Amino acid sequence: MSAPADTSAQTLRRTTLAAAIGNTVETYDYAAYGFLATILAKVFFPAASPGTALLSSFAVFGSAFLARPVGALVFGPLTDRLGRRPALVASLLLMAGASTLIGLLPTTGTIGITAPIVLVLVRFVQGLAAGGEYTTAIIYVAEFAPPHRRGALASRVQVGSLAGFLTGAVVVLSLNAALTQEEMLAWGWRLPFLLALPIGAIGLYLRSRFGETPEFLAARRQQSEKDTAAGGQWPRAVLLAGVSVLHIIGIYMVYTYVQSYLIQLRLSAFTATVVVGSALVIGLFLVAAGGRAADRADRPKVLLATSIVVFVLTYPLFAVLSAVPPLWLMIACTVLLSAGPAFYSGIAPITFVQLVPVRVRGSVIGVSYNVAAAVLGGSAIFVCQALVEATGDRRSPAYLLMAAAAVSAVAAAALVRKPTFSPTITPQPAEAGS
User: Fold this and answer.
1) Which residues cross the membrane (predicted)?
2) Which of 5, 31, 82, 311 falls between 20 and 30 A from 359, CA-CA?
């Protein structure tokens, strides 16, 4: 997997930014929804008890994930047949449009039960877009990257995802500081979703300026029947899904659910968002560090070691958090809780790409990753809250993250024993700049 000789550092930076910004829009919307979950519960489920309303709000959050495999079935073949860039442009248009529409929705107080139904439908459209966004973006960057920087550059797509979470945290934090609770319930909750439109417009401009990846062009010219048979790749797809478990549950749990968890521990929405925002800032650097480690170390072994660390530390950290310690200790625990998943998520993207041959990457990575995301990502915060409601034990969300670490440790161990990284196709200079 090599970049053409005339690919400049500036072109690589712009290409990476163009690919990452779509994931920024995606996770910004998910973060805004997660950070506003307690308010959206009152806006769209006003008649329910607080606990039931919050569970309903989290269930709507999860509805977007159910659409992701469907989106992968659409965008995956599009990515493999027409190219990476057309899929990236289409997914960004759909994502930004749906996110903006949430900010324009009438509430339950205005149109009754129709409001949450329409909200679910819009979230489903977002899920369709997300089914082609993240995996296509990491493929696009990795296929442009020079061999010695594949991990570092692919991890920047995940940095873009965390930047979306951080942007969502900052926006919601600013609104909570500037507006009263009544103003947030009346109209303030709309503003974060409307902001997706200008962010998406910037991303669309950047993506429209770049061409297809050199490796895709070379693969299309050297196409063979074996390379295009996606059906024979499913053993690798199972491994990919296993590797993705900690990445998916860890990121959505610690950067989305923990804020609501802290509010239930009697922290203000402002303080809880500050705590998670602090973890996000550190997480940006840890994802980048994971990407650099992916270029310098044995990836499966690092994934395995990180999974084990997360498994060991998660329960003690939740135990301290559940006791409502001083604020400084709460920040420290949240940072440590997110550190392992963040570092792991810097290594995972290039691992996904190298597991699958070029000609079927969009389909195989897209479907396997998004099936895992549909089952695990959307349900993570719902399951965490359901565990607390069912057991009354504030430490119980730890079990979900520990289970995720255990599953990914098994997948990483399988890669350590029998690496299955696929060969790449060397692009030819004649078409590299197309």
Assistant:
1) 30-48, 54-75, 87-105, 117-141, 153-175, 187-206, 237-255, 267-290, 302-321, 327-355, 367-388, 400-416
2) 5
* Residue among 102, 128, 96, 122 at smallest CA distance from 24: 96
Q: Are 128 and 74 in contact (CB under 8 A)?
A: yes
Model confidence pLDDT, tens digit, residues 148-161: 888 999 999 999 98
Q: What's the CATH code, domain 9-222+232-418? A: 1.20.1250.20
Please count the CA atoms within 13 angstroms of the CA of 283 that sit on its side-chain side.
34
pTM of structure:
0.83
Burial of 406 (0-12, 13-18, 19+ CB in 10 A): middle
Show me where the domains of the chain are located: 9-222+232-418
Q: Which of 188, 193, 194, 190 is nearest to 175 (CA)?
A: 188
φ, ψ of residue 107 to 5 degrees: the values are: -95, 175
How far apart are alpha carbons 407 and 362 in whole angstroms?
A: 24
373, two tokens: 């995301």
Distance CA 239, CA 374 (A): 17
- Quick: pLDDT tens for 396-431: 999 999 999 999 999 999 998 765 554 454 444 433
Q: Which residues contact 333 (CB under 8 A, 6 or more apart)?
A: 317, 320, 321, 325
Helix, strand, or coil (residue 335): helix
Burial of 20 (0-12, 13-18, 19+ CB in 10 A): buried
Note the residue count of the chain.
Answer: 434
Of the candidates 25, 39, 56, 50, the one whose C-alpha atom is nearest the C-alpha of residue 172 is: 39
> Could you give the angle at which helices 50-66 and 68-81 cross, rounded to 10 degrees?
20
Please, which pLDDT band fits residue 232 given cuts at 50, 70 and 90? low
- Do residues 289 and 151 touch, judged by C-beta distance below 8 A? no
